[in-house]
């Protein structure tokens, strides 16, 4: 926690999590929710009637608020570096091509950021469900805990 220029005590998100975990009252506190993200992030204007819903969604889906180090992460290299066998490399190469075709690398970067944030804050999430468990890339990122190679799940089940 720090004091701002007005003399108010401002808590970081980590401070707030510590207070919650120790069952302290957090009502009325000031929280710094800023995230160090790239300056060039611009979202589409929801009040602009000249663009379609699809254009609005497409524009905003390319803008992910995450720290700069995740924004600049070479996600393909990171995922490839997680592979331990030629079979894993082949599967990851196949899936990364599918993700690239669909312009989903920013989503993968955000998922890496999300999983790291949950791990760092001891947040528990599920084992995995639905078609997402067919993606070995998501398994390597820690999004789910189902090894799709072991269970012979096709990535097309997820990315169709």
The Rg value, from CA coordinates, equals 19 Å
Percent strand: under 5%
Report the order of strands and helices: EEHEHHHHHH
Mind summarizing the main beta sheet? 3 strands, mixed
Question: Which strand order do you get reading across the main beta sheet?
Answer: 1-2-3
Outline the low-pLDDT stretches.
Answer: none
Q: Decide which structural class fits the backbone.
A: mainly alpha
Tally of strands: 3
Write the layout of secondary structure elements.
Elements: E1 2-3, E2 9-11, H1 13-21, E3 30-31, H2 53-61, H3 68-71, H4 75-81, H5 86-101, H6 105-120, H7 136-141
Parallel strand pairs: 2-3
Antiparallel strand pairs: 1-2
Could you explain how this protein is built, in words?
This protein is mainly α and about 160 residues long. Helices cover about 40% and strands about 5% of the residues. The chain has a domain at about 65-155. The chain contains seven helices and three strands, in the order ββαβαααααα. Strands 1-2-3 form a three-stranded mixed β-sheet. The radius of gyration is 19 Å and the shape is globular. The model has no long low-confidence stretch (mean pLDDT about 85).
Keywords:
mainly alpha, single chain, 160 residues, 3-stranded mixed beta sheet
Short description:
The chain is mainly alpha-helical. Helix content is 42%, strand content 4%.
